[in-house]
Amino acid sequence: MLEERLFNAKLHDRSGFQCGEPALDDFLHKYAVQQSAKGICSIFVLIDDAAPREILGFYTLSAAQISVDQLSDTERKKLPRHPIPCFRMGRLARKIETRGHHLGELLVGLAVDRCLKARAHVGAYALLVDAKNGKAKSFYQHYGFMACADSPMALYLPLG
Predict the structure, then answer these.
(1) I need a labelling partner for 32 at 20 to 30 A (CA). Which of 16, 42, 73, 136 fits?
(2) How many whole angstroms separate alpha carbon 63 and alpha carbon 47?
């Protein structure tokens, strides 16, 4: 059974993870431990409980904010004029061998669910992502993310 867990460097094997995107692989292999320890981001991994050391995918969350001017006209009308608190999904990746198993979609759903639960304790209007390329942008837009006004590769998903 697939399970989402908070990343633990002592339990989860980073060395076997390859997603095909060098920057994402490097993050997990070289920087994940330090950034999570410093509170820069929280890292959540997807594992199979039959092989709990193997990372099948991961995403990161951190605090963020966005200028209200970056949102759609409809969104802007409902919000105050100061920067709007948000969550940021800084990274999202699934193991290359799992292509076609919809783990990317599952990871997005898990991240949104986690953000919705956190909103009970911390105010945040949306989940932000920065698409690395057109394919990633299309992926996020398929799940309802909208492009920011001045930065079309920056996207947001209202959590309301």
Answers:
(1) 136
(2) 25
- Residue 159, classed as helix, strand or coil, is coil
Please identify which residue in the block is written with the tokens 């390859």.
18
Contact 92, 21 (CB under 8 A): no
Q: pLDDT tens digit string along 9-39? A: 999 999 999 999 999 999 999 999 999 999 9
Rounded Cα distance between 95 and 54, Å, is 10
Q: What are the residues whose beta carbons fall under 8 Å from the beta carbon of 54, sequence distance 6 or more?
A: 13, 16, 47, 48
Exposure letters 120-132 (e unless 16+ CB within 10 A, then b): eeeebbbbbbbbe
Angle ∠(111,127,67) on CA atoms, nearest 5: 165
Contacts made by residues 78-81, CB under 8 angstroms, sequence distance 24+: 79/125
* CATH numbers and ranges of domains, the chain: 2-158 (3.40.630.30)
- Report the distance separating Cα 107 and Cα 142, nearest Å: 14
pTM attached to this predicted model? 0.95
